[in-house]
Write a structure and sequence with these properties.
Distance between the termini: 29 Å
Number of domains: 2
CATH topology of the largest domain: Quinone Oxidoreductase, Chain A, domain 1
Strand content: 15-25%
Shape: globular
CATH superfamily of the largest domain: Medium-chain alcohol dehydrogenases, catalytic domain
Helix content: 10-25%
Number of strands: 15
Largest sheet: 7 strands, mixed
Low-confidence stretches: 1-11
Number of helices: 9
Length: 344
């Protein structure tokens, strides 16, 4: 999205009344999350801001963890929700009526978010929704795909023929990483914690390894003629750390986005002898504007069908009155993407 010419910029107006889910205090656990539906007035105070009528908003584990007080930088009171899709109803003339989507590490955490009827954002935080996606599908893209894309962008996008090992293949970031790796032509191996098939879309065949019954590092080396994985995308952290590190090729890169226990035994000798690179990805540090830069890079691939949104099943689409149930479903490790849809 290019800069908005001043001649096309609409003047700030009197504002729009929004209905928002509000969190006034941290809950401690998912069962005690308490939402209050409140009316709020959203008003643009700059020409480069927009107000979006929310059509659908994703619910992420980070939304729930922030509500439970697990993120010290989360503000109270606030409207939660990082991911969104909707229609621009106030803002620069060139954007009015446009269907857009987006996400942000600040949105819904350090500032009011998308679990509302309307959302106020900078225009630069928006990505035009590809026409082949529904709003509900677009609302489920944000956090998982931005996390996966940024990890590969930092590590170096996979090259055709490189071996990419995705630990936690059936998680949402894992599925996004596999989509991107196979889009790039990499030979992709996914690791799951128990015997199960890969659940997501891929642009080529994916070899799936069951961590509970296979020596992952040995099998990866067997599959790569002894070389190992050029990139390991470790979406889980320490439970897979030893196997992931042992599977790395010479000059291999390992991407981390999460951890159960933050301390692991680090083999410095293997690290420098292998000339390995470790990269940490924290999309909570990304503003909505920074996240939009990544979504715009991916948008053409969604438009072409090479990247596909997660299927959103009707049973996992919730109205505001059932928002607590939506949050409980997410923190219960649901394999499905959960989306909130505002009441009309």
């Amino acid at each position: 999205m290019s800069a908005i010419p001043n001649s096309l910029a609409a003047q700030p107006k009197g504002g729009i009344k929004a209905r928002a889910l509000r969190l006034h205090h941290k809950s401690g656990d998912a069962d005690s999350i308490s939402f209050v539906q409140e009316d709020m007035l959203l008003r643009r105070d700059r020409e480069d801001q927009v107000i979006i009528k929310i059509t659908a908003a994703g619910v992420n584990p980070s939304d729930v963890k922030a509500a439970m007080g697990m993120m010290p930088h989360a503000l109270f009171p606030r409207t939660p929700g990082r991911d969104f899709a909707g229609v621009v109803v106030e803002g620069p003339g060139m954007l009015l009526g446009q269907e857009v989507f987006g996400t942000g590490g600040d949105v819904g955490i350090r500032r009011d978010g998308s679990h509302a009827s309307h959302l106020l954002l900078d225009a630069a935080a928006l990505t035009l929704k590809p026409a082949n996606l529904t709003a509900v599908e677009a609302a489920g893209i944000g956090v998982p795909f931005v996390t996966a894309w940024e990890g590969f962008r930092r590590a170096g996008m996979p090259k055709p023929g490189e071996a990419v090992l995705v630990m936690g293949a059936n998680g949402k970031v894992g599925q996004a990483a596999i989509q991107i790796a196979t889009l790039c032509g990499a030979n992709t191996i996914g690791v799951v914690r128990k015997l199960e098939a890969y659940r997501g879309h891929a642009n080529a065949a994916v070899t799936v390894l069951d961590h509970s019954s296979v020596d992952v590092a040995a099998k990866v080396r067997e599959l790569t003629s002894g070389r190992g994985a050029d990139i390991v995308y470790n979406t889980v952290g320490d439970p897979y750390y030893a196997a992931a590190t042992a599977a790395l090729a010479l000059k291999g890169r390992q991407i981390f986005i999460a951890a159960v226990k933050k301390i692991v035994e680090f083999d410095i000798f293997a690290f420098y002898r292998g000339r390995h690179t470790y990269l940490g990805i924290d999309t909570l540090a990304f503003t909505a504007v920074e996240s939009a830069e990544l979504l715009r890079e991916m948008a053409p691939h969604f438009a072409s069908g090479k990247l596909k949104p997660f299927p959103i099943h009707r049973d996992f689409t919730y109205r505001f009155n059932d928002a607590k149930a939506a949050y409980q479903t997410v923190i219960g490790s649901s394999p499905e993407r959960v989306v909130l849809v505002p009441e009309d």
